[in-house]
Each structure stands twice: as structure tokens, then as C-alpha cells.
Design a protein that fits this description.
This protein is an alpha+beta fold. The chain is built from 2 helices and 2 strands; from the N terminus they run ββαα.
């Protein structure tokens, strides 16, 4: 059901688009395509949300290029450290479980 609450809709200014053709390269052969051209000469129809998303994605690419990725050697070393830690912790927890199990059995009078 439609409800009017006296709020104005967010209006964007009208944009004049031109329909035209251009030639693009497809697998090494020219192809004529139809398309929209904006007043500034850019192709296609781009909304404000689309511009913001495009800017965000470009910033994400720039930030990803700043990342210092580990070398193969560093990756293998860190993987080894993690595996050793997991094995040590598994052994430790196994021992703690055994000791606590023995204590519970002793306190309940089932031997020890």
C-alpha cells in the first residue's frame, strides 16, 4: 500500500543521452555496435551509485597493490610453525584431559 508522508524523493538531474554506433574490435575483426553516449563523451549510462562503486573498486585495487605478499619460503615456514603449534597443543590437551579424567575417576571412587 502506498503511503505519502510528505518527503521529497531524491531526484537526480536529467541527463541527455545520445544513441550512436561505434566500431569495436572482436577477435581481431571490426564489429559495429549500438550504444549510449553521455554528454561528456563517456560511453554507457552510469549512475551516482555506480560512480561511487567504481571509485571504491579502484581504491581497493590500489590498496591490494600495496600489500607485501609473503614469499614461498616465508609461507612454508609459517605453515610449519602453525602445524608444530597445533601438534604441541593437541598433545598438551590430551595430557590435561587424561589428568582430569584420572582425578574425576579417583574422586568418584572408581579407582585411579
Amino acid at each position: 500500500m502506498y503511503r505519502s508522508d510528505n518527503r521529497q524523493a531524491l531526484a537526480t538531474p536529467a541527463t541527455t543521452l545520445r544513441v550512436g554506433t561505434r566500431v569495436i574490435d572482436v577477435n581481431g575483426r571490426p564489429a559495429t555496435v549500438f550504444g549510449l553516449t553521455q554528454p561528456d563523451g563517456s560511453h554507457g549510462l552510469i549512475t551516482e551509485a555506480g560512480r561511487r562503486f567504481y571509485g571504491f573498486s579502484q581504491d581497493a585495487v590500489v590498496e591490494a597493490r600495496k600489500v607485501v605478499w609473503p614469499t614461498r619460503k616465508e609461507t612454508l615456514q609459517m605453515t610449519g610453525v602453525v602445524l608444530v603449534f597445533v601438534i604441541v597443543m593437541a598433545f598438551f590437551l590430551w595430557m590435561v584431559d587424561g589428568v582430569l579424567s584420572w582425578i574425576v575417576h579417583y574422586l568418584m571412587g572408581r579407582g585411579g
